[in-house]
Amino acid sequence: MTAKGASSGLPQPDSQPRLDGLFADEAGNGDVPECQTCGACCSYSSEWPRFTMESDDALDMIPLQFVSADQRGMRCEDERCSALSGRVGVGTACLVYEVRPDVCRACLPGDYACMTARAAHGLE
């Protein structure tokens, strides 16, 4: 499998508010969402979970059933990553968390991408 660059599909702000090394929420009150009760970023856009800078060895660790047919990103069912289990906004888990791609590692709780995905799902 070969990594190919692609845009994230999520809007990128010029700057993001920070709080104690984490991103603050859009309201600026510092509340950081809990990932395991959310999952919005993993079910926001089928264009988002694309491989970027991963080595071939790192990509080979992701089980093929979760990789898209073109091998450029994670396989999605509609807008949801196939490696996401559970119910968005209630309780979720990543089935490939330990070997997830860089794009998934880059989305941090409460950052701009997180809050954009949460808003799209009606999660505040």
What does this protein structure show overall?
The protein has helices at about 55-60, 100-105, 110-120, and strands at about 20, 20-25, 75, 80, 85, 90-95. With about 120 residues, the chain is of the alpha+beta class. It has one domain (about 35-120). Strands 1-2 form a two-stranded antiparallel ribbon. A two-stranded antiparallel ribbon has the order 3-4. A two-stranded antiparallel sheet has the order 5-6. Strand 1 (about 20) and strand 2 (about 20-25) form a beta hairpin. The longest helix has 9 residues, at about 110-120. It is globular and about 35 Å long.
Write a compact overview of the structure shown.
With 124 residues, the chain is of the alpha+beta class. It contains 3 helices and 6 strands. The protein has helices at 56-60, 102-106, 112-120; strands at 18-19, 22-23, 76-77, 80-81, 84-87, 91-94.
Order of helices and strands: EEHEEEEHH
**Total number of strands:** 6
Mean pLDDT across the residues is 79
Q: What global shape is seen?
A: globular
N-to-C CA distance: 37 Å
Q: Counting H and I runs of at least 4 residues, what is the number of helices? A: 3
Chain oligomer state = single chain
DSSP helix fraction: 10-25%
Total domains = 1
Q: What percentage of the residues does DSSP assign to strands (E)?
A: 5-15%
Overall radius of gyration: 14 Å
SS-based class: alpha+beta
